[in-house]
Specification:
The protein is mainly α and 51 residues long. Helix content is 73%, strand content 0%. The chain contains 3 helices and no strands. The longest helix has 27 residues.
Length: 51
């Protein structure tokens, strides 16, 4: 929600943590980290099923 508010120019009441101050960056980084973590595992699992 903080990232959306920041993108539309209404920062509102934000906290003082680094994550809350960089909400847009975290909205991009978190999904990339999840994909980087689980994509190789999914590919390996898929290849094991096709054997």
């Amino acid at each position: 929600m903080t990232a959306t508010r920041e993108l539309f120019g209404d920062p509102g009441a934000g906290g003082g943590s680094w994550v809350e101050q960089h909400a847009v960056l975290m909205a991009v980084v978190r999904p990339l980290v999840l994909v980087a973590l689980f994509l190789p595992l999914a590919v390996r699992r898929y290849q094991a099923l096709s054997r």
